[in-house]
Amino acid sequence: MASILSKDLPEGESALARWRDAATAGDDVDALPRRTWAMATRYALYLMERRAPGEGVEVRVAPWGAIKILEGPASDPHNLTPPDVIELEPDVWLRLVCGITTWDEERDAGHISAVGERDDLSDLLPLV
User: Do the Cβ atoms of 22 and 2 come closer than 8 Å?
Assistant: First the structure.
């Protein structure tokens, strides 16, 4: 499933850089436009899809996207949900993608909901 349209990749890359720059400078990232958040999140999901293709784990970053990554058992044909599901808020996802925080830090803080055997993406992060 596509997380971002091909025509939007440059905007997504720029949005992720803007979010990262604001976050690392200590600026209020919540003040960034909603579209910046959406495009940064979608672009980061796109990067993860490229790094770890597959159908075994679903990564959900509501409200802006979900992807399936990593090899493994695919979705049950009756409910379409893979056996491993990871859910994160956009700010958590972007902090991880940019290397601002680590998987362990976010998990220990209760910011990651993960179900299944492959519930740790720390080996794949950060992406930028």
Answer: no
β-bridge pairing 112-115 and 84-88: antiparallel
Convert the pLDDT of each residue in 55-96 to its tens digit: 889 999 999 999 999 987 665 656 666 679 999 999 999 999
Torsion angles phi and psi, residue 114, rounded to 5: -135, 130
Domain-located, residue 85: yes
In which domain, by residue range, is 13 found? Answer: 6-124
Query: What CATH number has the domain bearing residue 64?
Result: 3.30.1050.40
Q: Quick check: pTM over 0.85?
A: yes
Q: Which of 3, 39, 5 lies closest to 19, judged by CA?
A: 39
Amino acid in position 109: A
Q: How many structural domains does the chain have?
A: 1
Task: Tell me how far apart the alpha carbons of residues 73 and 56 are, in angstroms, rounded to a whole number.
Answer: 5
